[in-house]
Amino acid sequence: MRDACFFGALIVYFAATALQMIGVALRRRKAVSAAEKVFVAGLALHTIYSVWRGVEAGRLPLANQFEFASGFGWACAVLGVFLHARMKQDWVLTVSAPAAFLVTSYAAFQPMEIKELMPALRSTWFGLHIGSAAFSYAAFAIAGGLGVYYLFKLSKGEDPASHAMRQADYMAYRMICLGFLLLTVVILSGAIWAEQAWSSWWSWDPKETWALITWIIYAIYLHQRLRMNWQGKRMAILAIISLISVLFTFAGVNILLPGLHSYA
């Protein structure tokens, strides 16, 4: 029954994505309005599942690749619902609903059994470190999605100076600011945690190294935005390229470069 909530959320995320795409493509307001309600329902199911799993496990459900991926997808949905409620813009769901569906789909292919927490993970830093990572990745995913959206609208002849395009560009920047701040928390809390667990602030573990590489890439993005005043198309392309580093840090490292963080 618990896992039914997870797969129910996955199905509902897909339905919300399909309704949103159909509504935007065919300019059907009823479909877009329905997508919003369905997406919120998916988030509710996902939240029920996460709380249920956490209660059964006796800890935050973020201790392995499945749980972290599920938390990542949940964070995409949380940010999407929050931003849509604040901004009332269709492009918010056009980006966040597919992000939540795709990341949660990845989670569905991971082993779902609940396991005991590794001794190294039994720390007060557990929630801050891994929770910050989930929301950091979600913010970057939405920013990368906005980059794709921006380039797509540009290819369709949308004026870069229009309010919608400038708003999407600025929101991608805001999401990257949020993600960068949270990734900084991830790296600093991880260093403190590593010193406590393994008596070493930094071990050049593949996950640590790629987190640092990702941080540097986004630092370059912010430098170009704030110091060089880059906007629009160049920033959209850079947001997409930067997201590739996030995805490799999230999943690629586990597959190709196993290390101390192979559990996540």
- Per the principal axes of the C-alpha atoms, what is the gross shape? flat
Question: Counting H and I runs of at least 4 residues, what is the number of helices?
Answer: 8
Number of domains: 2
Largest sheet: none
Radius of gyration: 19 Å
The counted number of beta strands is 0
Low-confidence stretches: none
Proportion in helices: over 70%
Report the β-strand fraction as a percent range.
Answer: under 5%
Separation, N- and C-terminal Cα atoms: 25 Å
Q: Helix/strand-derived class?
A: mainly alpha
Mean pLDDT: 92
Order of helices and strands: HHHHHHHH
What does this structure look like?
This protein has two domains: 1-115; 118-264, no CATH class. α4 (90-108) packs across α5 (126-155) and α5 packs antiparallel against α6 (163-198). It is mostly helical and 264 residues long. It is built from eight helices and no strands. The chain starts with a helix and ends in an 8-residue tail after the last helix. The radius of gyration is 19 Å and the shape is flat. The chain has helices at residues 2-26, 29-57, 65-87, 90-108, 126-155, 163-198, 206-226, 233-256.
